[in-house]
Amino acid sequence: MRTAVYPGSFDPVTLGHYDIIERTAKMVDKLIIGVLNNKAKCPLFSAQERVNMLKEVTSSLPNVEIQSFEGLLIDFVRRSHADIVVRGLRAITDFEYELQMAQTNRVIAPEIDTIFLTTNLKYSYLSSSIVKEIAEYEGDISEFLHPVIAARVREKLEERRRLT
Fold first, then answer.
1. N or C: which end of the chain has fewer CB within 10 A?
2. 135-138-141-145 Cα dihedral, nearest 10 degrees
3. Annotated binding site: which residue ranges?
4. Residue 22 falls within a domain, yes or no?
């Protein structure tokens, strides 16, 4: 059985992320989306909120599972009994960093391969950070996110505004 892990912060999950998820799910028996809980960052959504949002938008993909994790990706991949790491590439600048990480992971865990999927051209510019910035200024984010996720982003930002 081919099991892959697609890691990321997914804060929030974009249509670019979903494109990679959907395409990978067709290639493997099981896809585990690993939601990174990075305590060094200050995400818009908690890890559990991001897990829940991903579960909602991937509910039609029967071989997709969502889990949060902390620590080294390679340790999470091993615990998940996966043999593939999937990474999305938007531009050549992504490739340099991702190649370095893949090669480092290969030294640590030679049994685990990394595959790169290029993002659909219509999402090649898209990042969660850009989406959050547009949303912060109350711009239209409907072209970048699933409608449910766009609503959650707007709700979360409105909640933050009320608290400040």
1. C
2. 50
3. 9-10, 17, 41, 73, 87-90, 98, 123-129
4. yes
